[in-house]
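Reviewers asked in the last cycle whether our approach scales beyond single polypeptides. To address this, we selected a multi-component target totalling 617 residues and predicted its structure end to end. The input consisted of the following lines:
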Amino acid sequence: MRLLLCCQSVGFAYGTVEALSAVSLEITSGEIFGLLGPNGSGKSTLLRLMSGVARPRTGQVLLSGQNLQTYDREALARQIAVVPQESRIELPFSALEVVLMGRSPYLKRFGFEQAHDLAVAQHAMEQTGVSELAAREIHELSGGERQRVILARALAQEPRLLLLDEPTAFLDIKHQVEVYDLLKHLSRQQGLTVVAILHDLNLAALYCDRVALLKTGKVLAQGTPGQVLTYVNIKAAYDTEVYIGLNDITGKVHILPLDEANRVRLAQQEKNRC
Amino acid sequence: MSHLTQQKWFLVNSGLAIALVLSILICVAIGAERVNLTHAWQWPSLDNPEAVILFRIRLPRVLLAAVVGGALGVAGAALQALLHNPLACPHLIGVSGGASLCGILALVGTSMISAHTAGFLKISLVSVAAFGGAIGTTVLIYRLASVHGRLQPYALLLTGVVFNAFCSALIMLVNSLVDFYQSHTILFWLMGSLAAHDYITVGLTSLYVLIGATWLIAQGRRLNLLSLGEESALQLGVDIDALRRGIFLAASLLVGVIVAVSGMIGFVGLIVPHLVRLLCGADHRLLLPASLFGGAMFLVWADTLARTVASPSELPVGVVTAMCGGPFFLYLLRKEGRKVFAR
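The resulting structure, written as structure tokens, was:
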């Protein structure tokens, strides 16, 4: 397995508020890597550093061994694509036009999209299942439809690395698994590398090859979902007790929240054991 | 076609350019005074009153209308992208207020120094003062709307609106202190007028507008990316800080020079980009040049209406654009606003 992206003890702060400290991660080519952790643990900040949009205060991020900050922006846009959590587009662009904007890093200064660019965009829209929305205005679409258009735009960039910030937060369960199935397919068939922030630990367990669990700007644990998603780690990261079982069908761990009465009971049992 | 192609770009732009040239030719022929065109053309000298009307009065005025309208259209389209707000207009960013205030102060000032200042000198002094005011306001607003050296769209919007209101108040103050004749001139200037300009003014304004508009039009693809949001634009390879700065400066200076020669002509920069978007889509590579041609055409016809409809007297062109633009815009707002805001 080849190393694609490498965070070397990166740190970042918003003003004086530290968001990340000494985070080291290695993303190998073709894997699906999940970033997990409670709200405010620094996942989104880490993703911004990985996309090169923000510059780390300490340490460095390397893409194929070269510091991200030394890349030309357009060259970087041909390597890395980002799907943000939410996109608000105020002007009445059609869905196809939005997807075609993903071809922008490939165009000449005053250039127009050529037949090849159109073909790439249409293929990306087929993949995310939004072909029939091509002529619709982007702000007429539902949140889920819009998100899949944005995903198609990212794919139209033909990136090696796809970064996603909770891509399926607004999708229903069918579209959630469809998006992750597609990502899995792309990573297996075309060697696309995916780094995604996930709130849903079960989806992470189901689709990620490896995950990292963050808390207050530090990596608490990293490894396969089975290694990381343990009762102890989740308790440490989220400060809550959960039920962890094994899914009979997938053979992966699955995690369920517990109500207060059961959480108290579990915590009590643990205390007694100690 | 749900996206822009090179073919469509050429078709729409050349169509609009032809329509603009035709509009200019037709509107030169129309006027309060009946002019025998062949007569004027065959004998184009200062002794021929028909030639004087046609070439010295009407043609520069129609050309200036085209330049002013085009600049307002393209500035409006660019500012709507910059501010992420389809309701933004060139007079929103405060520059018009600053330019008008300085122009009016110059107008009153020159009259106080000498009641008999030559007309031409007075007009050019007022224009220079207004343009100086526009540049000064641009710098001031840029400073006020920047946080850590980065231009913030929402801060810009608010700063512009507040600054314009402040300038309006000062203009009203000046207006209430001067005599009736001056007050009348101020009012006429505030409502906008394209009359009484020579070819030198028209030529200088055109050159200036050409430079600003060309730069803005060249940013079309980046403006598209800007509307995806800050992070996405950055990630797609756009240096958004430099782009925002550039758009703001180019648009401000365009608006500044326009206000300096023609006063505050409203609604052109607001409704023309909207109309073009409805007809040709939102892609800024086409929207900007099409708004240039569309704005030029709109103002050429509006000014023709202004100088003919109540002849022999004349309406301020700003009144005509507002009377066409206001109701039309409310209609658009009802129709489109529902889509945009009801989320």
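The domain at 3-79+159-225 of chain A is CATH 3.40.50.300 (Rossmann fold). We regard this as preliminary and will revisit it once experimental data from Aim 1 are available.
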